[in-house]
From TrEMBL:
Domain Hemocyanin middle: start-end pairs: 1-100
A Pfam family annotated for this UniProt entry: Hemocyanin_C
Lineage: Eukaryota, Metazoa, Ecdysozoa, Arthropoda, Crustacea
InterPro entries (UniProt xref): Di-copper_centre_dom_sf (IPR008922), Hemocyanin/hexamerin (IPR013788), Hemocyanin/hexamerin_mid_dom (IPR000896), Hemocyanin_C (IPR005203), Hemocyanin_C_sf (IPR037020), Ig_E-set (IPR014756)
Coiled coil ranges: none
Record's protein name: Uncharacterized protein
Domain (Hemocyanin C-terminal): residue spans on this chain: 109-350
Length: 361
């Protein structure tokens, strides 16, 4: 099954159930591969390419009782709630990630002309506030883990406390020069590690595959200098913590606005920054500005106050692939210096082993 996917990447196309060849040597190719590997309803040929991800999880999960001879209950890999705690899950994710990389690296690198946004220059990038993470004690509501019929849960508040990572708030200050008429732009902020675990500098082409998207938003650039201030809490990549059931009931009864919790797709806001360390982990912070008129799928989306990174009304708003402009190979990192609408700066992420405990009554 996996060999068939590798074969499709090598040939540059997949075959649907009717035998028609569908090219994957384009920006949409990674979406087609995703449909195949995850075997969604959009897979062009589920019978031939199978369901690699689910089958791999099932094989790992049932390795102690593969034929169900002893009626062994499902393991941690069978449940999304426990799956991330198993190191085997991450090894499997890495294997699948490498399949996508094999495809992406087979595509030609972006040219300077493809990366440029004529008339636009990023002149300065500043991070205001310390990039600092810390651990905090957090109280989880466990009320939904109990059977209301057997436990008088309405008389009790049932919680568990555990440490979790969070970060101090910070903001970006970005200066962009527009030498032409006002333009709508898409501003992407990405961070990529600068050194490996041994302290050696990571080559740009290797580091770009380790890059993380920090934010992506639409902004109108007026003629002349534009100063853009963006808070970390405004990131379109992240979502706030999901409130407890009790909190949702109380907010509903009080007719409070729940709009901020509608988007459930994204990483938690508190995990926007990597952990860091006391000396400071170095990252390249890269800002890329591109033309919103060319990059946005649905024109109505660019007029919204909140940019929904993972889609709205069934439409993926960004035409560009995830991770653009670092998704494809970068044989010569100096091309970034030659493109005026892309600029990078060095930052450090700190963690001073601070642990904030909840007040105990």
């Amino acid at each position: 099954m996996e060999d068939r996917i590798h074969d499709a990447i090598a040939h540059g196309y997949v075959e649907n159930e009717q035998g028609r060849k569908i090219s994957i040597e384009n920006d949409n190719g990674i979406n087609i591969l995703g449909d195949i590997i995850q075997s969604s309803m959009y897979s062009p040929n589920r019978k031939y390419y199978g369901n690699l991800t689910t089958l791999a999880y099932t094989m790992l999960d049932h390795q102690t009782d593969p034929k169900n001879k002893y009626d062994t209950p499902p393991g941690v890999l069978a449940h999304l709630e426990t799956l991330p705690r198993d190191p085997a899950a991450w090894r499997l994710h890495k294997r699948i990630d490498n399949i996508f990389r094999e495809h992406i690296d087979s595509l030609p690198p972006y040219t300077k002309e493809q990366l440029e946004f004529p008339g636009i220059t990023v002149t300065n990038i500043q991070v205001q506030g310390n990039l600092e993470t810390y651990f905090e004690e957090y109280k989880y509501d466990l009320i939904n883990a109990f059977n209301d019929n057997t436990t008088q849960t309405e008389f009790y508040d049932i919680y568990a406390t555990m440490p979790r990572l969070n970060h101090k708030e910070f903001s970006y200050k970005i200066n962009v020069q527009n030498n032409g008429s006002p333009k709508k732009s898409v501003i992407r902020i990405l961070a990529m590690p600068y050194r490996d675990g041994n302290g050696a500098i990571i080559p740009f082409d290797e580091g770009r595959w380790l890059a993380i998207e920090m934010d992506l938003f639409v902004k109108t650039l007026n003629s002349g200098n534009n100063e853009i201030n963006r808070k970390s809490s405004e990131s379109s990549i992240t979502v706030p913590d999901v409130p407890t059931y009790k909190t949702l009931v109380e907010m509903t009864e009080n007719r409070q606005n729940l709009e901020m919790y509608e988007s459930a797709t994204g990483i938690p806001s508190r995990l926007l920054l990597p952990k860091g360390n006391e000396e400071g982990v170095e990252f390249r912070l890269l800002v890329a500005v591109s033309n919103a008129e060319e990059d946005v799928n649905d024109e109505s989306i660019i007029t919204m106050n909140k940019y929904h990174h993972y889609g709205v009304r069934g439409v993926q708003p960004d035409k560009r692939p995830f991770g653009y402009p670092l998704d494809r190979r970068v044989p010569d990192e100096h091309i970034v210096d030659e493109v005026p609408n892309i600029k990078e700066t060095m930052v450090k992420v700190y963690n001073h082993n601070v642990f904030i405990r909840l007040p105990h009554h």
